[in-house]
């Protein structure tokens, strides 16, 4: 019996990568801060940032974007022009009188997440950072380089060394200069963000409110007690 040598070429089937189904995105754009430079309206900047947002952030995503902005300046010609621009772009404008944009967007974000969407919030307002999660990210305008930049859960943890759920607690310690709310650092020398983070990481701050705390207290010893507390946190407690 004769045998023939047969060359067999094995060609593996190409690997097919099936992408995981991605959740659709809803964009919330906090319009009002983009319309102002200080206390003065700057509609030119608004138009520029809006154009950049549409071109480079939303990437013509078919999911409708919600837009919410504060009621400051309602009824002025400038405000009407802003609304008209958004309407002409087929963008629904959500505005609730008596509430600020962060309140409106936070409420809508919760509802949208329950429907299985991801959320992108476009705003320079730092208060939105407390909403960041795996399904919620921010995109903020950076004037120095003239573009929008994404800010995600990974960025937040790298910057603050904690979870966004602690953002509100941090603000209780540090205050909010943008809203004129002073922080404890104005009372205690050396108390900064790092010390506040130490406190949050070392202590359970989830306590229940006690009505007795509403009574007037003696504040004359505050400076000494708080300064001593900071020293103890740093392992340098007084004897």
TrEMBL record:
Keywords carried by this UniProt record: Hydrolase, Nuclease
One Pfam family here: 5_3_exonuc_N
One record GO biological process: DNA replication, Okazaki fragment processing
GO molecular function: 5'-3' exonuclease activity; 5'-flap endonuclease activity; DNA binding
Location of the 5'-3' exonuclease domain: 22-217
Listed name of the protein: 5'-3' exonuclease domain-containing protein
């Amino acid at each position: 019996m004769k045998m023939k040598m047969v060359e067999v070429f094995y060609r593996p089937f190409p690997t097919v990568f099936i992408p995981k189904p991605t959740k659709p995105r809803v964009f919330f754009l906090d319009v009002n801060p983009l319309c102002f430079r200080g206390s003065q309206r700057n509609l030119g900047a608004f138009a520029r940032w809006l154009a950049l947002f549409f071109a480079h952030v939303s990437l013509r995503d078919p999911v409708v974007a919600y837009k919410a902005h504060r009621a400051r300046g309602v009824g002025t010609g400038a405000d009407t022009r802003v609304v008209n621009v958004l309407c002409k772009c087929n963008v629904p404008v959500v505005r609730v009188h008596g509430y600020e944009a962060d309140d409106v967007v936070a409420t809508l974000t919760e509802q949208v997440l329950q429907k299985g969407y991801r959320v992108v919030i476009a705003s320079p307002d730092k208060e939105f950072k407390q909403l960041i999660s795996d399904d919620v990210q921010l995109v903020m305008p950076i004037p120095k380089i003239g573009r929008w930049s994404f800010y995600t859960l990974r960025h937040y943890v790298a910057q603050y060394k904690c979870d966004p759920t602690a953002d509100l607690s941090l603000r209780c310690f540090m205050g909010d200069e943008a809203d004129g709310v002073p922080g404890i650092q104005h009372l205690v020398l050396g108390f900064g963000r790092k010390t506040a983070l130490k406190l949050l990481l070392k202590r359970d701050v989830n306590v229940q409110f006690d009505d007795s705390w509403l009574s007037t207290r003696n504040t004359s010893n505050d400076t000494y007690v708080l300064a001593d507390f900071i020293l103890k946190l740093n392992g340098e407690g007084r004897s």
